[in-house]
Amino acid sequence: MKNNILRIFGDRGYDSKYIYNMFGYNAVIPPRKNASTKSRGSYARAKIVRFIKKNSMEQWKENNSYSKRWIVEIYFSGLKRVMTEIIKAKKIEYIIQELALKVVNYNIMRGMTHAY
To answer: Name one Pfam family in it (predicted).
Structure first.
């Protein structure tokens, strides 16, 4: 599945070596303020930290279209508000089906039939 993901956006709460090792430079997640420029297990993360320290956080955000994260935040906020945050299924395959149906129904309600 990770090979199908072009970019993953997140806030500082998702800053971890695990995420950067999984998605590499496709992870658009600002590092924490005290982030080390040394690799320590994640070369991609260290390179991003060095870029930010050399230039600026604003430059990094602009280069990586970080402002697009808010589009995703708005979408999921609406999805959770309209379709509720409750998942009734217990088995993972049914959880995936339930979530997919909620997304499809939400997109139809919003007139976004091209989005699935």
So the answer is: DDE_Tnp_1
The tokens of 39 are what? Answer: 């690799």
Are residues 20 and 57 located together in one domain of the fold? yes
Give how far Cα 108 sits from Cα of 69, 79, 89, 96, Å.
Answer: 22, 12, 22, 18
Q: List pLDDT tens digits, range 47-65.
A: 999 999 999 999 999 999 8
What token pair was written down for 112? 């976004």
Whether residues 6 and 59 share a domain: the answer is yes
Cα separation of 49 and 67, whole Å?
19
Domain encompassing residue 21? 2-68
CA 81 to chain centre: 19
Same domain, 64 and 84: no
* 10 and 47 belong to one structural domain: yes
